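If you are new to this repository, start here. Below is one unmodified record pulled from the training split, so you can see the exact layout before writing a loader.
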Amino acid sequence: MSIDKIHSSQAMQKEYKRLFEILKYSMHELPAGVLWNPNAATAKQCAELLSDLHQFTALSKELGFEHDEFIQGCMWHLEHYPHYLSRQKHFSSYAQYIQERKGPLRVSA
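And here is the target side for that same chain:
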């Protein structure tokens, strides 16, 4: 393997790990909500996390890692949480919203 391929592989693995940590952190308070740093994520931040998720998905496949259940769970929440935020007054909690839509209450890495 050439030096360039080694560095490329190392860079991909570093980015994979960085994105994995970001996504795990954003999901760790479920079913209370999706996090962005120490606060609840906004709709715009969910869109950014969704972009990170797409990149993580591509890197996972490229590196040969299996994360289908984690990816699907993150996808569900990153697509639904903005809707919940826009209609939050109609629900007692995000957990209620998740249960009514038969979504995953937790996302395991």
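Two things worth knowing about this chain: The radius of gyration is 16 Å. Residues 46 and 78 are 5 Å apart (CA to CA).
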